[in-house]
Design a protein that fits this description.
heterodimer, A: 268 residues, mainly alpha, 11 helices, 0% strand, B: 256 residues, Rossmann fold, globular, binds adenosine-5'-triphosphate, binds magnesium ion
């Protein structure tokens, strides 16, 4: 009996070990890819096998990064874009959820707006850019709106669908206690849809970056999107790549934060 | 005047493709403290009838009177227990069982203490702060019963509340529910597919026929069974006889 127990413990230990080893290999290959990519890029560029004017090189980007950190200009651009993106993404998710709640509240409204939602969803929202800029004057408001508008319709549709899919028996329980429609929403519909709202948040992180960067392409004189368009105009592709890498890093961080939030809320 | 009067209920569901008459010409009365079971083939309208009695659904025709007055959903006259517990998974057991009181603005120290007391009485002491998923199926169904009873409904609807449980848990819960209802002298209507359960728990068993649902036959349970707890009743000799009778009637109703 005791022998058996030890045997199982040993097997479990082996199993854990094998997991650890596998994880190490995964990390190892991930590091290899990273190193090969950047050192390959550097070598290709140094030896002029690719046009260094177009493709720049990691070392040039690194130096530019350092100098832009020193003169503080990167922080300003980053700050502007981050603020716009976060606001756009919060607004988009919030507005989408509120719209979904209104549609749930009134089945009549949801029937009326159904085809319009389909049209709006199918339409490429960034195409509205010029109109927004003229309507809201160039600057923060129009760019934040771009960040929000790109995610609001899809959020509305996804969250509304989840509202409708809440098991009607939960509502039945509430109705037997004489609950009002608002109480039904607050006690059952909304909390049951939290997981969907959070996953909408995750999608919206990506979407808001698209909206904001395109918005900055169109009007801005600050921000990471502006850095890209400016670098393109003066043919400074080191600047373009720097901006791309910074965007990649911060978009990932934002995504991970939402992921963390999700894990925390869902676990509870 | 009877405690509950069900007067000439007809109900038809309308969908785009069909109009299904679920209930037709249903009339009966239930006395205070009585326990009535509804038996019948699947789809004969049992759930529909419970929904109508608890005023969750407005019948196409007919009226429900509770102590002579029409039932209304806002008065918490009728408690409803479903096949599954439908405890809210994100609320603790305590929040779940106090939900009815909270929604009807009756939550105060006294009612709260009474609900927690009932929880203890039903054998769930110490789970107040736990989430439903930490409890077994039987415990959850008991918690759901506490939630239903917490607002002190005059009438209780039980829609197959034991059918998702294993046999042993089910027998135990039958006894517990029966005892709790007796203690508070509640009137109850139970829907079940289990003939034995209907016999063991009820004073009267209504057999419904389907398409459309009508009351086909009413069986009075013999006095000696009524006195016993459901578990004891199942072991009584009278139980077998009446089981056979109802079984045959039900067989003749089921479509082959
Ligand atoms: N919302 C609805 N819309 C249309 N038809 C319905 C609806 N609910 C029930 N029905 C129909 O009404 C009839 C009675 O349904 P009900 O759910 O009351 O039966 P039941 O006796 O509770 O069945 P079961 O024993 O399977 O629970 C069925 O034929 C069903 O298809
Ligand atoms: Mg049913």
């Amino acid at each position: 009996m005791n022998q058996d127990k030890k045997q199982v413990e040993l097997l479990h230990k082996n199993y854990l070990n094998s997991l650890k080893i596998e994880k190490r290999w995964v990390r190892f290959y991930q590091a290899i890819i990273f190193i090969v990519f950047f050192s390959g890029w550097e070598i290709l560029s140094r030896n002029q096998w690719i046009d260094p004017l177009i493709f720049s090189s990691p070392s040039k980007i690194w130096n530019l990064l350092l100098s832009k950190i020193q003169d503080g200009s990167l922080m300003t651009d980053l700050g502007v874009t981050l603020t716009e993106t976060i606001l756009g993404f919060l607004l988009g998710t919030l507005a989408g959820t509120i719209l979904a709640a209104i549609l749930w509240w009134s089945p009549m409204l949801s029937k009326i707006f159904d085809p319009y939602l389909v049209i709006l969803n199918a339409m490429p929202k960034v195409a509205l850019g010029p109109v927004l800029i003229v309507a809201l004057t160039p600057g923060y408001p129009s760019i934040i709106t771009m960040g929000a508008i790109i995610s609001v319709i899809i959020t509305t549709i996804v969250v509304y669908t989840s509202f409708k899919e809440v098991d009607p028996n939960y509502l039945k329980v509430l109705q037997t206690f004489g609950a009002t429609r608002f109480q039904c929403f607050k006690e059952a519909i909304l909390p049951a849809s939290f997981p969907t709202i959070i996953s909408a948040l995750k999608v919206n992180v990506g979407l808001s970056w698209v909206g904001v960067i395109v918005g900055e392409f169109l009007v801005s004189s600050k921000g990471l999107g502006y850095m890209i368009i400016y670098g393109f105009q003066v043919f400074n592709f080191t600047l373009v790549f720097l901006s791309l890498l910074v965007i990649a890093v911060f978009a990932t961080i934002m995504y991970q934060l939402v992921d963390l939030l999700e894990k925390k809320l869902i676990k509870e | 005047m009877s405690f509950l009067q069900v007067q000439d209920i007809h109900h038809t569901y309308f969908t785009k493709a069909t109009a299904t008459t679920a209930l037709s010409n249903i009339s009966f009365t239930v006395e205070e403290g009585e326990f009535v079971s509804l038996l019948g083939p699947s789809g004969c309208g049992k759930t529909t009838l419970l929904s109508i009695i608890s005023s969750l659904l407005k019948p196409t025709q007919g009226e429900i009177l509770l102590q002579g007055k029409p039932v209304s959903p806002s008065k918490n006259d009728v408690g409803y227990m479903l096949q599954q517990d439908y405890l809210f998974p994100w609320k603790t057991i305590e929040e779940n069982i106090l939900l009815g009181l909270k929604l009807s603005n009756q939550l105060n120290d006294k009612t709260k203490a009474a609900a927690l007391q009932l929880l203890q009485q039903i054998g769930l002491a110490g789970v107040e702060k736990q989430l439903p998923k930490q409890l077994s199926g039987g415990m959850r169904q008991r918690a759901a019963l506490v939630r239903t009873l917490s607002t002190e409904p005059k009438l209780l609807m039980l829609d197959e509340p034991f059918s998702a449980l294993d046999y042993q848990t089910k027998l135990k819960l039958e006894d517990l529910v029966s005892q709790t209802l007796d203690e508070y002298s509640k009137t109850a209507i139970l829907v079940t597919h289990d003939i034995g359960e209907a016999i063991a728990m009820s004073d009267r068993v209504f057999l419904l026929s389907s398409k459309p649902g009508r009351i086909y036959k009413i069986f009075e349970m013999p006095e000696e069974l009524r006195k016993l707890s459901p578990f004891e009743a199942r072991n009584h000799e009278a139980y077998q006889t009446i089981f056979q009778t109802i079984w045959k009637e039900l067989e003749s109703l089921e479509p082959r």
